[in-house]
Write a structure and sequence with these properties.
Number of strands: 16
Helix content: 55-70%
Strand order of the largest sheet: 8-9-11-12-13-14-15-16
Radius of gyration: 35 Å
Number of domains: 3
Strand content: 5-15%
Mean pLDDT: 81
Structural class: alpha/beta
Largest sheet: 8 strands, mixed, barrel
Distance between the termini: 106 Å
CATH topology of the largest domain: TIM Barrel
CATH superfamily of the largest domain: EAL domain
Low-confidence stretches: 1-10, 660-674
């Protein structure tokens, strides 16, 4: 068919033109999609890489800072065991620093980043001998003069070299921040290149090309702005995040040092935020954080910086502010935080605790200032004082307790708790009659932590309930295992004053005994004298139920509290345990022996067995036998033993087992723990 007719020619031209325009439109759309997809993918890769590098650099920075703290801590410590623990932490932080640096070196790096890492590596290799020498000097320090010498060595040799490393790390972090900003700029450039290509192709389809170009421009600007904003601001409150706050703090240090001005750094933590999350839900918790942020912003100066560092933790940077100014501002914030917040009709009051560090009095670099402000905040929270300034005298101990308290929450789930067992020797038979279970904490960094270091922390954090439940379960299980092997020994377990206020304690213990098929008479509950007297009516009810259950009850550390004979007579006790402070002094102190003798006579007069603890030599053991003490325990017989050493000791000890005694024989019918 010929197309020489004008009508057909026009139709063919229109068809061809429409086809070309349609093809251009499709091509234009395809190019837009392909370029946008490619650029988004490249942005994600680059930004994730930069974030990974920044995180590793911060890890190195944190490890370096905490190594410096560890050096100073070792120098001022007196306890060699604590020194060893901090020396191990010092080495662990060094490994963390080296590992982070190696991981960073494995990532794609610019020449500038490689040069900085080479400098850091060189500085590290030259600094390490001085740091190690400083730690060794601190480890061997015994006198005040030794301690001062160790501190001088740290100040003169170790700290300046570590400061050089810190400066290079700061430069590296700044470089990475600049790289993130360049990434956003490059993204804009790529988008503009895409626009040029689309406009070139779209000249034959201007209308559609213009719409696509507008779309791409708006999308590019939005994406670049979003990436830049996400890198520097908190996604929930829109406050500066940790990265931006650290940068502003660094700038404040530099400018204040140059102008010889002071500034205040405040660390603010909400007191009852967890309660809001637990009772109202995380959605309302997020709303509360937003309202807190807005309230802080509305009462801050334009020159102040307010940041959310994570969770319910906020930091405030107040330029040109001294100690009195920091105190006035903290009081204003505390008043703000005590005012109720409206969460969808519910009035919520949370309160806050604030720690304050002043530059340069409390530190002259960002990391130290932030750490000291945090330490002061925890002191304020613990003492319920509202706000506190950093106090070097208690700061180091507070930082250590903060770390232990956080680790303690996960001790059970991470299988870090251990029970040790100390044998009791009956004077009438001269045999092993029972064991006392003593909890220890095998900390991955601090080694074996004794109970006097963490029991008080457990009580203050509410962890004492699950801790006691674990101890009772493990002690009863171990006792049942011994019985099944023919060793019928009693097992004593210490119970906190907080546990005695739990009306369900007898039922819980009964359930554990039933699970492991152990007769209640083999379990001995030890409570301190002060715990029993703390709330006599409440504890008496719990103790009476335990007595009905069939467990033995004992007062531990007798003589150190304030109990009266009238109170003791009301309690369903089986044993009295004389505190070791009297037993250990018997040989040299007539008054201590008089107290021990009187306690034994009183206990026997009330129909109770008397146990002495702290027996460390043969003479003390013999004297206790002469005085009629029923049984004893102490280092002379045996130190507390882990389970793997207990069986060997029971088989090889000179005392032997009292399992053949009629008073300790297992009943012929299997008992039940009802």
């Amino acid at each position: 068919m010929k197309l020489d007719h004008p009508k057909w020619s026009i139709r063919a031209g229109l068809t061809l033109g429409f086809t070309i325009v349609l093809a251009l439109m499709v091509t234009l759309m395809a190019i837009a999609v392909v370029w946008m997809t490619r650029i988004d993918r490249e942005l994600d890769v680059i930004v994730n890489s930069n974030l990974a590098k920044t995180e590793l650099a911060h890890t190195m920075e944190t490890a370096l800072r905490e190594r410096a703290i560890a050096m100073h801590t070792i120098a001022v410590m007196q306890d060699p065991f604590e020194k060893d623990a901090y020396a191990q932490r010092f080495d662990t932080l060094g490994s963390l620093f080296t590992t982070a640096r190696a991981q960073l070196e494995a990532l794609p790096l610019s020449d500038a980043e490689l040069n900085l890492l080479k400098k850091i590596k060189t500085l590290t290799s030259t600094t390490m001998p001085y740091a190690r020498a400083a730690v060794e000097t601190a480890m061997t320090a015994r006198s005040r003069e030794d301690t001062l010498a160790a501190l001088d060595e740290i100040r003169i040799n170790a700290v300046p070299r570590q400061s050089l490393i810190a400066e290079e790390l700061t430069a590296l972090i700044t470089l990475q921040k600049d790289a993130t900003e360049r990434t956003a700029h490059d993204a804009k450039t790529d988008y503009h290149n895409a626009i040029v290509l689309m406009i070139t192709i779209g000249t034959l389809a201007i209308g559609l090309g213009l719409l696509v170009a507008i779309f791409v421009i708006r999308n590019a600007t939005r994406q670049a702005t979003k990436l830049q904003h996400q890198a520097m601001f908190d996604g929930l409150t829109n406050l500066p995040n940790r990265v931006l706050f650290h940068d502003r703090l660094q700038q404040a240090v530099l400018s204040s040092r140059r102008d010889k001005r002071m500034f205040a750094l405040l660390s603010l933590d909400l007191n009852r935020f967890k309660e809001v999350n637990d009772t109202l839900g995380h959605h309302q918790g997020d709303k509360l954080l937003n309202k807190v942020a807005q309230r802080l912003l509305s009462h801050a100066r334009e020159s102040d910086t307010i940041a959310r560092l994570g969770g319910d933790e906020f930091s405030l940077l107040l330029p040109s502010t001294d100690i009195s100014g920091g105190a006035v501002f903290a009081q204003k914030l505390l008043k703000l935080m005590t005012e109720e917040f409206n969460l969808d009709g519910k009035q919520v009051s949370v309160g806050a605790s604030i720690g304050i560090a002043i530059f340069p009095e409390h530190g002259q670099d960002p990391e130290v200032l932030m750490q000291h402000a945090d330490a002061a905040m925890y002191i304020a929270k613990r003492a319920n004082t509202g706000f506190e300034f950093y106090d070097e005298a208690i700061g180091n101990n507070t930082l250590s307790n903060i770390a232990l308290k956080n680790d303690l929450r996960h001790a059970i789930e991470r299988n870090q708790l251990r029970l040790y067992y100390q044998p009791k020797i009956g004077h009438d038979l001269g045999k092993v009659t029972g064991l006392e279970a003593l909890v220890r904490w095998q900390h991955p960094e601090h080694g074996l932590v004794p109970p006097d270091r963490f029991i008080a922390l457990a009580e203050s954090t509410g962890f004492i309930q699950p801790l006691t439940a674990w101890v009772v379960e493990e002690a009863v299980r171990q006792c049942a295992l011994l019985h099944r092997s023919g060793m019928y020994l009693s097992m004593a377990v210490n119970i906190s004053a907080i546990n005695l206020k739990d009306a369900e304690l007898p039922k819980k213990i009964s359930a554990v005994l039933s699970t492991h098929q152990l007769h209640p008479k083999w379990l001995e509950i030890e409570v301190t004298e002060s715990a029993v007297m703390d709330d006599t009516l409440c504890t008496l009810r719990v103790l009476e139920e335990l007595d009905v259950l069939g467990t033995r009850l004992s007062i531990d550390d007798y003589g150190t509290g304030y109990s009266s004979l009238a109170n003791i007579k009301k309690l369903p006790l089986n044993d009295i345990k004389i505190d070791k402070s009297f037993v250990m002094g018997m040989s040299d102190n007539h008054a201590d022996e008089t107290i021990v003798r009187s306690t034994i006579e009183m206990g026997h007069g009330l129909g109770l067995r008397v146990v002495a603890e702290g027996v460390e030599d043969q003479a003390t053991g013999n004297r206790l036998t002469e005085l009629g003490c029923d049984s004893a325990q102490g280092y002379f017989m045996s130190r507390p033993l882990p389970p793997e050493h207990l069986l060997k000791w029971l088989h090889e000890s000179p005392w032997g087992l009292a399992a053949d005694a009629a008073t300790l024989a297992e009943p012929s019918t299997p008992p039940t723990a009802e």
